[in-house]
Design goal:
The chain has 140 residues and is α+β, with helices and mostly antiparallel strands. Helices cover 36% and strands 26% of the residues. Strands 1, 2, 3, 4 and 5 form a five-stranded antiparallel β-sheet that branches. It is globular and about 45 Å long.
Length: 140
């Protein structure tokens, strides 16, 4: 498997600041993200490398955070392209131990094909491992 996908999955599933799980715990259910097939949805933004698809952090303050990330030496060493914002829309099945499924992915318009493919593969693998068993076609 693509090592960037594995790192993305780790960033999504650990329960610590900057992870998807941590960010989802702070989001209100149903708010702007609506529902999908009867399930409440949440949305979470993330900052990623637009050339590789590597996710650096989940945050709802991406535009404030990105300039600070560029100054961080540990980020600069790992960066291939530009830092940009993406969004996952996630359905939460409260009846099945809060299983989650990513149902849509929004990326920046200047995302390279390789990065988009990496993010889409991240979604597929995440849904296979953690989501309710329903097929989802990702919107562009």
């Amino acid at each position: 498997m693509n090592p960037i996908v594995e790192k993305n999955l780790e960033k999504m599933t650990v329960s610590k600041r900057g992870s998807m799980i941590f960010q989802l715990m702070k989001e209100s259910i149903g708010g702007n993200a609506g529902t999908w097939e009867g399930l409440s949805c949440r949305a979470t933004n993330f900052v990623y490398d637009n050339q590789t698809g590597k996710i650096f952090v989940f945050t709802n303050n991406a535009y404030e955070l990105i300039p600070r990330l560029y100054r961080a030496p540990e980020i600069k060493r790992k960066l291939t392209g530009d830092l940009v914002e993406g969004t996952y829309r996630i359905a939460v099945d409260n009846k099945k131990r809060h299983r989650t499924r990513i149902i849509s992915l929004r990326t920046s318009s200047n995302t390279a094909d390789l990065a988009r493919e990496t993010l889409e593969e991240t979604v597929r693998v995440y849904n296979e491992r953690f989501g309710p068993r329903t097929e989802v076609a990702l919107g562009k």
